[in-house]
Write a structure and sequence with these properties.
Blueprint (H helix, E strand, L loop, with lengths): L1 H18 L1 E9 L7 E10 L3 E7 L3 E12 L2 E6 L4 E3 L5 E3 L5 E7 L8 E10 L4 E11 L5 H7 L8
Parallel strand pairs: 1-10
Antiparallel strand pairs: 1-2, 2-7, 2-8, 3-6, 3-9, 4-5, 4-8, 9-10
């Protein structure tokens, strides 16, 4: 009987770990008045293979997972087809000039210091979904400006 209880406890822990995704250092870039889009950045680590499949936020009409890619020597931004893979135990950085969460059709200006709620939906290999609620603090417009310039950030991009 003790062995059965131990097995059930072990399975429960494994099931909880299966869907677990850790989010670190979440932030969004502040905007200027009338700006309709901004990016959210963070580090994601999944306990088991998973993927980021969707997002939402009360500050944006549309939330998409985007990537920056080189196409014929031109840096372009596009929505990730399908989902963003999160290999087990490997940190995946969402950062300016790379993968990021795009907040579009903003309902108002995002000011430096604002706390922006974002819901991220992850899916495990078994198809089960988990929603993680994060609070991302807005950082000034010039945050990581050197990174943006060297890696093709949002400056001048049309979304």
């Amino acid at each position: 009987m003790k062995r059965f209880a131990f097995t059930l406890a072990t399975l429960a822990i494994a099931a909880a770990a299966h869907a677990q995704v850790t989010v670190k250092d979440a932030w969004v870039r502040a905007t200027v008045p009338q700006q309709k889009a901004t990016g959210a950045f963070m580090q994601l680590t999944a306990a088991q293979d998973a993927k980021l499949v969707a997002g939402s936020s009360p500050v944006a009409g549309v939330v998409e997972i985007h990537e920056m890619v080189m196409d014929n020597n031109v840096m372009k931004m596009r929505e990730v087809a399908g989902a963003l893979a999160l290999p087990a135990g490997k940190a995946v950085d969402l950062k300016p000039g790379g993968y990021h969460v795009m907040l579009m059709d903003l309902k108002g200006q995002v000011k430096d210091g604002d706390v922006v709620p974002v819901s991220l939906v992850f899916e495990g290999k078994d198809g089960k979904k988990q929603t993680v609620e994060i609070k991302a603090t807005a950082r000034p417009l010039n945050t990581a400006a050197k990174t943006d310039a060297s890696q093709g950030g949002h400056a001048g991009m049309k979304h």
